[in-house]
Every structure is written in C-alpha cells, then in structure tokens.
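thought: user wants a sequence for this fold. calling inverse folding tool.
action: design(structure=
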C-alpha cells in the first residue's frame, strides 16, 4: 500500500516500498512511517486481529494508530499530540506517551499495548437501562360498584338500618367519569347524598392529569388539603410507575481492564454491572433514604479486585435536578360534605410548584386566592452533607376589611352599627423541620409558628390555626428491638397549652411472633396516661392470633382492659376469612368474610355493652364491557374482560396466577390489574380442543386507572380430516395432483392412494381437484367426531366436460 504521507521531522514524503522498508529496518537511518497490518492486544485483552497502523523508526519501533482506532479503543491522548496524515487519515504516535508501554512481536505481528487506566476516555454507565414505558389503552364501557349492608341491633328495643355506597362510572380511551353516592335508611330517617362527581383525563406521556369535578387540592408543605368542585391540572407521576422522582446516586472509579462491578448498599448486594476499561462513572445507583454506604467491588477478568467505598446521605422527598412537580386548581370549596349533596361555598384558585434545583436542593412555592383573601408562600428542602435533611418554609396571608365585614354580617354575630371599624387582617406562618436517618436510627424535630391572622383554605377560611406546634421524634433499632419516642407541644390562642408524649417498643421473635409495648401520657392539664402490651403470633401463612392488655388512667380514674383475637385473612382468589375478638368485659365480635370472583360477602355479629348487633354486607361490581354485562369484585384499580370466543371452561391466569375459567360464552371478568403497567394475561392450551388454532397464549395488557380492557384471544376451531379421492372408475387420483378448499388459492397436494389431509374445513366444503389438465368439483359435508383426525370417506371425482 502506498500513499501520500505528511509528518513532522521527515524529509521524505513518499512511503517506501515494502522491500525498501524491510531493508531500512536493518540500517541505522531513520525510516519514514510506512503502512502495515498488525494485531493489537490492550492490557492482555484482544482488541483486534488485524489493524492498519503506520510503523517507523530506525528499528521499526515507532507505531502510529489511526484516529478511528483511537476512538474505538477510547484512548485519551494528549491534546498537544500532533497527527501524521496518510491517505486522508490522521495517525498518532503512541511511543513516548506517559501511560503507554508498547511491545511488538515480530513473529506473530502483534502489538502489545499496556495502558494505564487513566489513558482511557471516561465512560458513563447506567446501572439500570431505561425501560420502555408501555402505552396504556382503554375500551369503552361502564361499571357500577356497590357496598351494601343491613344491620339489626337488639338492646331491649330492636333497631334496623340498611344502606350502601355506590359508584357509577363510564370509561373511554379519553378519560373516566365517576359519580359516588350513599344511602342510609333507618326506622326514623332516610338519607341519600351525592359524594363526588369527577371526570379524569390521565396523560402518561406528560406525567400529568386533568380533573374536572369534585376532587382534593394539592398543597405545599404548609398547606392542608381541601375538598372542592372545579378543575385541576397537576403532575401525576403514578401514570409511569417506574419513573423515579428523587435523585439517584452515582459513583466513579477506574480499571485497566473490562470488569464486572458488584454494587453493595449497606452491605447488601443490589446489582451487578459490566464496565469497560478506564475511568467510569456508574449512574442511577440505588437510593439511600438517610445515611448509608455504597460499596463497589470491581473485578477484572484476571480476578483482581478493588473496592470503592463512599458514605452518602439521600432522601426520597427531594426531586431530581430539573424535575417539576406542580398543581393548579380553581373552583368552589365543598361544605357539609357527606351531609348535603351540592353545598358549594367560596370560590378560590390555588397552585403549588416544586422543582429540583440540584440533587440535594428542592424549592417550592405556592399561592391561594379567595374572595378578598390572598396567600403566598415559599420553601425549600436541602441536604446538609451527611447531617440530614432540612426543610424550611414561610407563608403570608392577607384578608381585606370589606371581606371580614361581609362575612360577619352573614353570621349570627353581626356587628352593631356602633362597633368600631374593622381593619384588614394579615398573618404569617413559619415552619422548619430537620431529620436524620440511618439504617438503624431516626431523629428529628419540627416547629411551626403561626400568627393569629393567618388563614388558608385547607383549614377553613374562618378557622384559626394553632399558634405554635413543636415536636421531637426519634427511633432506634437494635438486636433488643425497636424503640420510638415522640414529644409534641401545641399552643392555641386563649386555650391551655397541650403537651403529649408517647413511647413504643417492639421486638420480632421470628416464627414465635412479635411482642410490643406502648405508652402515652398527657404532660399538661388533666392527667391522661395509658400503657399497653401486646403479643402477636402467626399461625401459618394466612392465620394469626394475638393478645393485648391496656391500663388507662384519666382524671384519677384507672381501668385495666384486655382482649384476645384470632383471625384468618382472605386469600387472593376464592376463599374465606374470619375474625374473632373477645374482651374481659364479655364483649364479643365475630366476623366471617367470603369471596368469589363475583363479590365479597360479610357477616358480623357483635355483643358490646349488652347490645347485640348483626350486620350483613356484600360488595362487588357490575361491568358492561365488550357488549357483555358481567359481575365481579369491586372495580377499584383496573380490570379486563378476557374473551376466548366460543370456548368455555378455559383457565385464565393473571401474571401466572390463575383467576378462573371462562363462562359458556368464553368470557371471564378479571379485576385488580395494575394500571399503567404491563399485565400478562394467559390461557391454558390444555383446555382447548386439539382442533383449535390459537395465535398467542399470552397477551400483555396495560390499562388506565379505573378503566377496563377487552383482551381477546384469537382462537378458532380448525376442522380437519383425511379424504380419499378416486376417478369415475374407482382408481385413486394420481399422486402429485392438487386441490383447493372453498375457493382458496392455496393448493393442497394429493398423496399416495389418492389421499389428502384437509384443514380449515367448514360444515360444508367445496373441493376442486386438478390433474393432467383435467378438473372436477366435489362437495364434502363435515361430520363432527371425537377423533382429532377423522377419515372423511372416499369421494368420486367426476370430470367436468
């Protein structure tokens, strides 16, 4: 190979011929670089078997590597290194670069390069590859969920009551509308009240939702949620369950060879990842909620190990850098919720915005606007090294004087004309919190100071908050158990100060259960103390028993009570559960719960204070989906109608757990799908006849929240059989002849003795045979038998004229 060569320090610009090059290597004069092919080994690992390099020097000891190989091998060459141009390519001299050691084997024509880890470009590796978010879908349908009860109490006189809570909803690919209400009937009164009416549009791609109707405000840390009717636009991270909102850790290291990294979080192996040689940064390491340690064990293919250890402090309450969490809402506040159906009060608008500024600093701000009222606030949360997380916020509210007068005039305490003028009212709130966590210890404190004029919509626009709240808390876990302690002080205007203290201890005893102690005390005002001890013992997977005793003292009066319980939890599928509770006062509570695929049923009997109450309950849903009305358990999250058309008693599984069998129409209602996640729905092929053809036995379904899907398995019964064809003289049709079935373009060959295997048959079939330039048509009526491959008979082919 020859080409134009440009290099600093050489007079010649034309590469020598191979003969000249060989002679030059035995002389003492400097030879210009010339092209040759060599194998390359980097730190003992095979990089390439044949690569074009330039070779020069008096003994051929100089080697130049092309730019594309420098990039492929991720070499980090000095920026001051000048290239040598050859055939429109840039080559770089590797000799005399600190960090590189070169050795060339003339016999094998292999260049051995020993490179320090610092001679490679840094690599960034994500510990967990980004998962593709499944795209949710929804069918069109409706559901009615119900929770019914009836009860009878006897204590001298008999009283009866009945009622229920209902939710009616319509789901579409656009969104979900739902309406909830309850009814309660007694011997003396009847009440029916609407609770919520809401239309929800979820947008997983935008991690957001739009809600129109009755919902709850999203607030900043200083706010309190409030029920309202209106419109809300808010982030909804739940629409992508795998989305991580909090900052993840990263750790850097370096290795001279491709290696495997074991990641330990607090001495627990959590992941294994391959990394290339050179400096590397491992991103998206598991988060530590509190103080902890991440340790990387880097092991190359020669078995050499190195450890990288770092102590960190993390928080799941902070936002990732650049991530926004917001909510905007406007409407009217709900009043007398659960009592009257349509009691809407003051109009308002509010919003909150949180943003991750860095991995350890998150800000928030918010506002509230109501008639004659305004509130603004701001706050931040940040990590203080490994000393914990601090949150601080401040808010200011203001109310116009005209609003105060207008509200007072509408109340029974309206001011007289001689009352002094009312001034505008304003108030402030200051709050701070600090907490520190580790795998065994949690400690923290928080305080909140509020002036008398501070108001917010969540606490009621006319209700005053406590003017001071201070709390201290802590917990520690040891081999002797877990201990938690809390102290709280609350001060209100014109009221006595309240001080509370509580302490708890619990110890797991393995298969022998758990022992716990709890204490509570009022440290101010009237004397209120309580101490309790409890023991819990599991009895297998679903059953357990427990006993507890409590001593309570209030205003000088002391009482000791105790109880014992025995219970069995409901299984995931069909089955039953129960609960028994008996006290030292001869009180008794007994409950039996059973469930099947169409509902949950409950019977409770209790005797408390000489009053015996019997209660019956039932809950479930009626769902119209896929042109079928089906009954099932409550449609709480997401659900599906699985259809295997025409095939009854086919077992259906959700995520490898059997949920039931198809009905006579081949359908089954499957509740409790995980919204916005892939749910694997499968059918059992053993329950299908041998004549059935199915395109897939498993289908992944990703529904929206509170929505349903029709999951239809494409199964059809393929009738088949063996037929023999003869001509008018009874001689078998010649081998190699072909036929078509019901006008299909597919040709079926005829084998020996004029036999052919026919598939895809119907009840009546038209067969057309072609052979030797002749053809005939035959009608075959299929008779069903238990034989999967029946003999259909002998059919005579009458040639067409």
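)
observation: tool returned 801 residues.
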């Amino acid at each position: 190979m020859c080409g134009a060569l440009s290099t600093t320090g050489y007079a010649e610009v034309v590469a020598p011929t191979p003969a000249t090059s060989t002679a030059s290597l035995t002389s003492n004069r400097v030879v210009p670089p010339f092209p040759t092919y060599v194998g390359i080994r980097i730190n003992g690992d095979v990089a390439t078997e044949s690569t074009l390099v330039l070779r020069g020097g008096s003994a051929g000891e100089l080697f130049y590597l092309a730019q594309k190989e420098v990039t492929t091998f991720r070499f980090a060459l000095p920026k001051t290194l000048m290239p040598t141009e050859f055939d429109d390519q840039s080559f770089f001299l590797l000799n005399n670069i600190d960090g590189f050691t070169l050795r060339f084997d003339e016999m094998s024509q292999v260049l051995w390069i020993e490179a320090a880890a610092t001679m490679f470009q840094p690599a960034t590796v994500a510990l967990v590859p980004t998962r593709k978010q499944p795209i949710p879908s929804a069918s069109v349908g409706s559901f009615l969920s119900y929770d019914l009860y009836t009860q009878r109490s006897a204590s001298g006189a008999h009283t009866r009551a009945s009622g229920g809570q209902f939710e009616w909803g319509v789901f579409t690919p656009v969104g979900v509308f739902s309406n909830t209400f309850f009814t309660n009937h007694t011997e003396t009164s009847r009440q029916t009240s609407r609770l919520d009416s809401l239309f929800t549009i979820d947008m997983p791609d935008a991690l957001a939702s739009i809600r129109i109707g009755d919902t709850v405000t999203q607030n900043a840390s200083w706010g309190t949620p409030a029920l309202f009717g209106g419109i809300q636009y808010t982030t909804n991270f739940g629409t992508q369950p795998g989305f991580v909102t909090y900052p993840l850790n990263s750790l850097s290291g370096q290795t001279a060879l491709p290696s495997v990294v074991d990641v330990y979080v607090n001495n627990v192996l959590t992941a294994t990842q391959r990394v290339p040689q050179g400096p590397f940064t491992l991103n998206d390491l598991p988060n530590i909620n509190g103080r902890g340690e991440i340790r990387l064990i880097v092991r190359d293919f020669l078995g050499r190990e190195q450890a990288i250890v770092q102590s960190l402090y993390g928080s799941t309450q902070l936002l990732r850098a650049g991530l926004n969490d917001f909510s905007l809402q406007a409407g009217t506040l709900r009043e007398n919720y659960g009592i009257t159906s349509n009691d809407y009060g003051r109009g308002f608008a509010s919003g909150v915005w949180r943003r991750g500024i860095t991995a350890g600093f998150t800000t928030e701000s918010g506002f509230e606007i109501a008639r004659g009222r305004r509130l603004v606030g701001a706050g931040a949360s940040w990590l203080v090294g490994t000393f914990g997380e601090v949150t601080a916020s401040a808010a200011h509210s203001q109310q116009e004087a005209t609003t105060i007068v207008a509200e007072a005039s509408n109340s029974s305490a309206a001011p007289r004309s001689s009352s002094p003028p009312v001034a505008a009212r304003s108030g402030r709130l200051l709050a701070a919190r600090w907490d520190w966590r580790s795998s065994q210890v949690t400690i923290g404190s928080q305080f909140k100071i509020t002036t008398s004029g501070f108001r917010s919509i969540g606490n009621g626009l006319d209700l005053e908050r406590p003017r001071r709240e201070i709390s201290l808390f802590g917990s520690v876990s040891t081999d002797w158990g877990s201990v938690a302690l809390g102290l709280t002080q609350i001060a209100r205007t014109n009221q006595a100060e309240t001080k509370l203290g509580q302490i708890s201890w619990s110890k797991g005893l393995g298969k022998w259960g758990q022992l716990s102690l709890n204490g509570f005390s009022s440290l101010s005002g009237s004397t209120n103390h309580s101490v309790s001890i409890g023991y819990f013992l599991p009895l297998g997977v679903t059953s357990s028993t427990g006993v507890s005793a409590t001593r309570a003292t209030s205003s000088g009066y002391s009482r000791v009570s105790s109880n014992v319980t025995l219970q069995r939890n409901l299984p995931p599928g069909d089955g039953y559960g129960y609960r028994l509770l008996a006290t030292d006062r001869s009180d008794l509570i007994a409950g039996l719960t059973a469930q099947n695929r169409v509902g949950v049923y409950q019977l409770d009997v209790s005797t408390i204070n000489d009053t015996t109450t019997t209660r019956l309950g039932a809950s479930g849903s009626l769902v119209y989906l896929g042109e079928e009305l089906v009954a099932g358990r409550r449609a709480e999250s997401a659900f599906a109608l699985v259809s295997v058309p025409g095939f009854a008693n086919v077992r259906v599984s959700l995520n490898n757990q059997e949920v039931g069998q198809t009905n006579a129409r081949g359908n089954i209602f499957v509740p409790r799908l995980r919204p916005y996640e892939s749910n694997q729905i499968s059918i059992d092929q053993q329950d299908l006849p041998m004549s059935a053809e199915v395109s897939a036995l498993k289908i992944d379904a990703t529904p929206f929240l509170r929505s349903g899907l029709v999951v239809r398995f494409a199964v059809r019964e393929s009738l088949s059989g063996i037929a023999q064809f003869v001509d008018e003289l009874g001689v078998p049709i010649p081998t190699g002849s072909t036929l078509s079935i019901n006008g299909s373009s597919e040709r079926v060959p005829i084998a020996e003795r004029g036999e052919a295997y026919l598939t895809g048959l119907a009840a009546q079939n038209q067969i057309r045979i072609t052979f030797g330039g002749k053809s005939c048509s035959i009608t075959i009526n299929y008779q069903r038998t238990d034989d999967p491959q029946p003999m259909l008979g002998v059919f005579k082919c009458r040639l067409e004229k």
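thought: summarizing for user.
answer: Here is the designed sequence. Residues 1-28, 410-417 have pLDDT under 50 and may be disordered.
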